[in-house]
Write a structure and sequence with these properties.
Structural class: alpha+beta
Number of strands: 5
Shape: elongated
Order of helices and strands: HHHHHHHHEHEEHHEE
Number of helices: 11
């Protein structure tokens, strides 16, 4: 329901914007037909229509739409330049250019291309009054041209300011998201590194024990070799997951050796109304250590978000189930209209960190309102071959 409301709000804003441009289009037509000016009316109708179309298409290929509107505007200006008693300043085109300036500065990559394109829009914009407004030599045309130029310049400045502000906020968010993702990769690398070290240590100890026992009891060597092979397989599995993940030496809390009892204990300590349900066949033996640590991370963040944003929730349900080749953790609680999570719709850095952690392990995570009355975090991870 809330996602639908957000979508309808965006659509309403688009409709209001197009309605405003439509009113400017009507104003352009009235201005150019009083007194009658067929050429000016034709220019305003064509230019205004192209401008409205550009606003509708601006989010698909922003730079291409901006260049196309600029070229169309210059062509119209070149066609009618010098026509006597022409009134075709083009307020609709100017409005479209201002909207495009915001979109260009917000969406075009890299930033230098956005700046160059927005400056090009400014040049085209301030040339419109001079090229399309010609009147009797009584000073009226010059004054009107100068006034329109100033208005367009101020409008472009407002659009550039809004677009620049949105770009700065967007870049800050990107930086924050990248820091969270990098932190999750490093934390995962630390945990996997310790898991591999644990397996290697076990291999060394068992090999030394096998050598000692083999001198007096050769029959006991074969079970020791089987244990060494199993530990080596575990180490290789963890090492494969470590490849591509950067390793950092900074200090952080580590959760090596997490078990299902730790997850159950965390839920039990969270709230008396919180329940932890295990699906059939789920045990510490079926889940690799790195999978358990990731599930522990997701559960910790989910419960923290509930405590922060829904402290008076009547119940929390945690369910862990396995399928043929994957494991799924689901954390759900009732949703209220005043829940702060609704305004962000899962856009916090904590959720970004969880998603990065799960995706690094080859899984995926979904968080948000479901069924209109629940908030759910669902993480699904592949089960490595054991």
């Amino acid at each position: 329901m809330w996602e639908r409301l957000s979508t309808w709000t965006q659509r309403a804003g688009e409709i209001a914007l197009l309605g405003l441009l439509g009113l400017l289009w009507v104003f352009d037509t009235i201005l150019t037909t009083a007194p009658a000016d067929t050429t000016g009316a034709l220019v305003c109708v064509v230019g205004g229509g192209v401008g409205i179309l550009a606003v509708v298409l601006r989010k698909r290929r922003t730079w291409l739409v901006a260049v196309a509107l600029s070229a169309a505007s210059l062509v119209l200006s070149a066609v009618v330049a010098g026509a006597p008693d022409l009134r075709a300043v083009g307020f609709t085109e100017a409005g479209a250019f201002m909207v495009l300036t915001i979109t260009v500065l917000r969406r075009v990559e890299p930033i230098r291309n956005a700046v160059v394109l927005s400056v090009g829009i400014l040049v085209v914009l301030i040339s419109l009054p001079a090229l399309r407004f010609e009147g009797p030599e009584n000073g009226y045309a010059n004054a009107a041209t100068q006034a329109a130029t100033i208005v367009y310049l101020l409008g472009w400045s407002v659009g550039a300011g809004i677009g620049g502000y949105l770009r700065v906020q967007q870049e800050r968010r990107k930086i924050g998201e990248e820091r969270v993702r990098r932190g999750e990769r490093l934390e995962l690398a630390r945990e996997l590194h310790d898991l591999v070290a644990h397996h290697i240590t076990g291999i060394v100890v068992q090999a030394q024990a096998a050598r000692t026992v083999g001198e007096t009891n050769p029959e006991a060597v074969l079970p020791a070799l089987d244990a060494i092979a199993g530990a080596g397989s575990e180490a290789l599995t963890s090492m494969r997951r470590l490849v591509g993940v950067l390793r950092a030496d900074d200090h952080a809390t580590r959760n090596v050796g997490v078990t299902l009892d730790d997850l159950r204990k965390m839920v039990g300590q969270f709230s008396p109304a919180a329940t932890f349900d295990l699906g059939p066949g789920v045990s510490s033996l079926t889940l690799a250590p790195e999978v358990l640590t990731t599930l522990h991370r997701v559960l910790t963040e989910s419960l923290t978000n509930i405590r922060r944003h829904a402290p008076h929730t009547p119940w929390v349900e945690v369910r862990l189930t396995t399928f043929e080749d994957s494991v799924r953790l689901r954390v759900a609680n009732p949703l209220s209209a005043a829940d702060p999570r609704l305004s962000r719709l899962g856009g916090g850095f904590g959720l970004i960190g969880m998603a990065e952690r799960v995706e690094t392990m080859g899984g995926h995570l979904v968080a948000g309102p479901v069924a209109g009355h629940l908030w759910e975090v669902a993480a699904e991870l592949p089960l490595p071959a054991r």
